[in-house]
Amino acid sequence: MRIKRGVRFSRRDLAQLEFHEGHVHLATAINGRAQPVLSFTGYPSPRTTATQEGLAVLTEFLTGSTSIGRMRRLSDRTLAIKMAEDGADFCQLYQFFLAHDQDETNAYDCARRICRGGLVEGGAPFTKDVCYLDGLLRVTNFLRVALVKGHLDYAPLFFAGKIEVEDVPLVGRLVREGLARPPDHLPEWARDLSYLTAFMSYSAFLGECDLVAERRRYEDLIARAEAEMP
Questions:
Q1: CA dihedral 90, 45, 57, 6 (to 10 degrees)
Q2: Rounded CA gap, 31 and 47, in Å?
Q3: Residue 186 has what DSSP assignment?
Q4: Which of 52, 74, 106, 121 has the most other CB atoms within 10 Å of its CB?
Q5: Which helix (H) or strand (E) covers residue 74, if one does?
């Protein structure tokens, strides 16, 4: 894992690097290369990129190392990719990031990420950054269903190598048949599944709630309280 020279990191930045890069990308590489048959899962491929990035972002959430700034950067990059697909050029992307509270250096770097390997004139961006949020949704929704259905053993299997969401049940079957091995290197949340099960169960419960009526009720409550303030 390489760290840029001359760059300063906050404690939260360092935690993000530790869990995102170390506990996910590095761990899945080591675990995959240790597989007796599936050693190819120790190496990245375009097919598994979304799952890898989604798993890494979910790990940031579960370890408390993400932030609203981090999520805003990911969402802004997704929006910028759509802009570039619609024809926005490098300068327009740069202005977009400046308008979203990035300083000149970060705005330039974000615009560069969108244009790398593509066209600075717009129309053909590099779309990898879409994978972060897309993968986060896919990994989270899979775990919500699997854990509620009682398949607790599926969560650690995401770390058996660099695999895709759809591969997890198959890897579970291969582990039972002795053709694959469970991962040795795991973040704590994938070892102790009590918190993950509670978190995903609550998430599934919230997904079944009707927020429309509740939102109206609490918006009125907040509006009345603000109106009464001197």
A1: -60
A2: 18
A3: -
A4: 52
A5: helix 68-85
Alpha carbon distance 105, 109 (integer Å): 6
Contacts of 84 (CB under 8 A, 6+ apart): 93, 114, 115, 118, 122, 123, 124, 125
Looking at residue 229, its pLDDT comes to 66
Cα 85-90-93 angle, rounded to 5 deg: 70
Cα–Cα nearest to 48, from 164, 188, 182, 179: 164
Measured between alpha carbons, how far is 92 from 79 in angstroms, rounded to an integer? 12
- Joined tokens for residue 200: 């995903």
- Please report, as a single letter, which amino acid is at residue 94: Y
Question: How many Å apart are CA 97 and CA 88, to the nearest integer?
Answer: 13
CA dihedral sign of residues 162, 166, 168, 172? negative
CA distance 191 to 202: 19
Where are any strands of DSSP class E within 46-156?
Answer: none
Q: What does the pLDDT look like over 20-73, one tens digit per residue?
A: 999 999 999 999 999 999 999 999 999 999 999 999 999 999 999 999 989 999
